Sequence to fold (1018 residues):
Amino acid sequence: MEKEIICTVCPMGCRITVTGEGDRIDQISGYTCKRGEVYGRQEFAHPVRILTSTVKLEGADQPLLPVRSEKPVPKELLFTCMDILKKTVVKAPVKRYDVIVKNIAGCGVDIVASDTVEA
Amino acid sequence: MKTDVVIIGAGAVGCAIARELSRYQLDVTVVDKNEDIGGDASKSNSAIIHTGYDASPGTLESQLVVAANPMYDQISRDLDVPFKRIGAILPAITDEQYEKLPEIRHKAFLNRVYDVQYLTREELLEIEPELNPEVKGGLYIPRESIIDPFILVQAYAENACENGVHFLLNTRVTDIRTEDGAVKEVVTTGGTIETRYVINAAALYCDEIAAMVGKADYKVVARRGQFFILDKNTSCKVRQIVLPIPTKITKGKLMCPTIHGNMLVGPTAEDLDNKTDKSVTREGLDSITADVKRLIPNVNVRDSITQYSGLRPNRNPEGLHVDTWDDLKGFINLSGVRSTGLTLSAAMGVYVANLMRDLGEPMIFREDYKKTRKGIVRFHELSREEQDTLVRENPAYGRVICRCETITEGEILDAIHRPLGARSMDAVKRRVRAGMGRCQAGFCGPKVIEILARELGIPVEQVTKNNSGSYMVAGMTR
Amino acid sequence: MYEISCDVVIIGGGPAGLSAAVAAKKEGAEKVLIIERDEKLGGILQQCIHPGFGLTYFKKEMTGPEYAGAFKEEALALGAEALTDSMVLEVVPEESAVYCVNRKYGMTKVTGRSIVLAMGCRERTRAGIQIPGTRPAGIYTAGAAQRLVNRQNAVVGKKIVILGSGDIGMIMARRMTLEGAEVLCVVELMDFLAGLTRNRVQCLDDFGIPLKLSHTVTRIVGNERVEGVYIAAVDAKKQPIPETEEFVPCDTLLLSVGLIPENELTRKAEIHVDPVTNGPEVNQFMQTTAPNVFACGNVVHVNDLVDNVTVESLNAGRSAARYAMGTLPAAVRGVPCVPGANVRYLCPHKVVVTAEEETVRLFFRVLKPALKVKLVVKSGGKVLSEKKEQRVNPGEMCHVDVKTGSVSGNDITVEVTGEEV
Fold:
């Protein structure tokens, strides 16, 4: 399989072409720096994304708490994670970086609070 | 339900009639299909109170406009409506236009508007420096004025309401039944109302109402007028109403200040084959710019903060009529009320009251009639000391919701909770101007949605921009 | 009237105001007061729940609330104070005062030895670009929709068309998709992306949302609520090509068509506003034409990275504190900054040469994208420095540094030469 990837590491936006299958990369070209090569390989084999969203918050002056995945999660799990977050309810007070959902969808990444909210 | 008078239409004319009739011992009910008072053309016009200098002499329209103009000084005081006599100029840019001036002035005399003056080129440029320097001379019409058209109609309606008039909004008239040559009842989507009088002030839809009693010998054709509103900081401002020499079809495209300090430019005049298309079009807007530039060369429409259009309810055949029929007692039909509708509204109320007396109705004054109404406080017009006092009395005035126009939560709450209060975004906007600034509700919109939901006790998905179907948000996320 | 007196008063508690407060306190100003109209500090960052903040300043990928939280905590820990739920109504440089109103104190006069403007910006509206058609419910600027979904728990619609490929538009495309809406396309007038490429990848490509470059919305349809929009391709003069017009049924139009610095207070205070940036004219101290008034953040010029806002605002806060304490160096002479080839504007607009030698960072934006560029700084025609960059875009802020000691001529110019894209 051949995939064309736009690198997002810096404003250059190099177009990296990767050929391979699953974890195996046969050929990779188009990057102009080491960071780009790393990005291209990761994006081809295991694309990941930071997930940010909100969860329902109770006991505070605001209805929602912004949350984020501590690290990027596998791209294919984004909507599964969203389904979990849509059903998650948190009670104030919350501190920034409190764990809201541990090991979401079993991918090893925690969802944490992005903000501190008083009760 | 039983009443003495049903007024169909809660626009300027309907509400003015309601106010006038509320002076008498009559049970009056106003019915309107919209969710708020304000009508249609009454809320999308040039906000000018005309003198009638250019009406068709000898017509009922001329009589009513000329009679109405002087009434607004008292009305604006009694009803707390922003109003200002800023005057109008009619500049002649070409020789051909200059030659028309005597005829226009003569027509003003025939309309009994005697205070139209000639001004020389120098005099015109002195009072209106932004005028095209090629101006040859022109006319000055001192009593042409500007008003807040939304507050005028709200004021009529609130005053009427306080004096006992019932308002049925979101209520559409579907039929009018008669018996023995007299009106008997009005059938609406909210029930049937037994009544002795029906006053058809439905403007754009008055032909459809008249058809219910077999009196539609005319049709209403919507004539669309598009407008620009310019930012209060726009580089080119005029001080008076600047009018073009009128043609047969339209008063033409003008430029004038609004009572709140913006500039208004327009309108177009386009006949439509429907009664609902309130689009603004590229061609329409461009034609406004082209025409107005001939009068005010530096007009800068790139400073426009909003564009809108209104539908004039034109009658075909033309002419303003207030008709009654011997074989249809109690039915008073208003048709052909159009560009001058806002202006003549005050006079029309008195005219209809007198008509009812002529028809034999004992018009007995009410002892407890309340003549005045206090409007919603305009926080941004108060001095710092007055603002301070107000906030200490009521902290709701201490939170500014509309940043562009400095409108406070206190004003919005008043708008929602007073009689005939606002129940939609546009209803709030027309009462307190939140959303009329340069950010066009970008900042205050989300806050007003929240306030409406909270104060009306409705879920946020039920907050509408205006009529049913205009929901603001599709739902909650969590 | 309630009166508060302080050393530095800051209007706006978003990233600009918070950074300025931190710097003012660190410089030694005693009483630093932030006046914020929202009930919480953080400004626009409160609703920017997405990542992309702090990449250069903290070398971390943070979300808006995290970034704001870091500065909020630092400012408060250093002793800065905040008056929230308070709207500033007037700035009066001659009185060195700011008038604001809030529920608790009523009309409040806050005097400061120096004032910092950090009011941010507003969004360009549908009417601002005069899109023809009707005026139904369902037309929102992207920021207003973002506030609704991220802070007020409300989705604006289910079938969405987005006009403008700026970052806010693209980020909302992703956000709304994750919340279950269908984003039909992003429409962009220019033939290049307005925002960052990474957003194109992570907000549009990831979700299969088509990007239509060289297109525009020509008409909005719907009486009560949006029923659809007409989209057309545009020619080289950016005029719609009628034969290409197609109707896209939708219930929402989101607009991401530009930000405008919010300078109503600035204008009323008769502080000079630069016509290109639409923000106050400032020198390298972020000092406006009123010597006791400073400015920073989007109110001066629209930024793309909050990290740059922080750099500028730390500078403004420090300078405002120095002014308040009487330690801001006196100007020996003022040198205007003049945009050269392919430069839209330079900020600061003016550099004052003082007895102190300092390095001034000039921020600027290019007019057109270019590759293999040279950024050349000149003064009085003489080259002061040259910097090479691989690529520049109008959507990404650039900068060059100038040593004030080296400014020999009567102006400073920056020109950008390179290959067309």
